[in-house]
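re: ur question from earlier - yeah i can do the single chain one, its not a big deal. heres the input i used so u can compare w yours
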Amino acid sequence: MGQYFRSDKRIFQPGQVIRTAGHFIEMHPDAGKRTEELLEAARPEHKPKRGRSLMLFESEEEARKFCARMSGGHLYSVEATDAKTQHRGDMALVNHIAALVEAGTDVPAHLPTDYWNGVATPEPIIEVLLESAVVEADLNYTQEERDAFIRALYQIKPKPYAVIDDDDDWPLFVAGPAD
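and the output i got, formated as tokens:
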């Protein structure tokens, strides 16, 4: 049992049990589907199928990064209800595999195996696969917070805007210094 974080488009209340929606793989673009096929082909028999698992983050920061890229996503803190973790892997490996597939580059056979063996990259994004978890709290990730997080993450400086024509109904804004 432990505390984890979940980014999800579904709306949950504290105390509610979360399970996978079951359509994780179908929602991927082709490169994502191919990535999941490679992971499934390397999956040891005793490990859970990714498409049937609830995927949680160990790190709130990594969950926020993921949620910030998801339109309409909600961020939850959750408590694991399973007696044991079914799998703990590095999502950075999954992302690397996906990038290779997207680029049309051969994926080294050890990468999917490394994922299932729990090998961590130098900057791991640890995901935990479970059957279910109980919502502790909705972390109320507003669009403004999401935008600020993305700007900070990618070091994007906000552009100042100036009102150049204000006719009371429709002010006209333009990018540039507000002189």
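The chain has five helices and nine strands. not sure if urs matches, ping me
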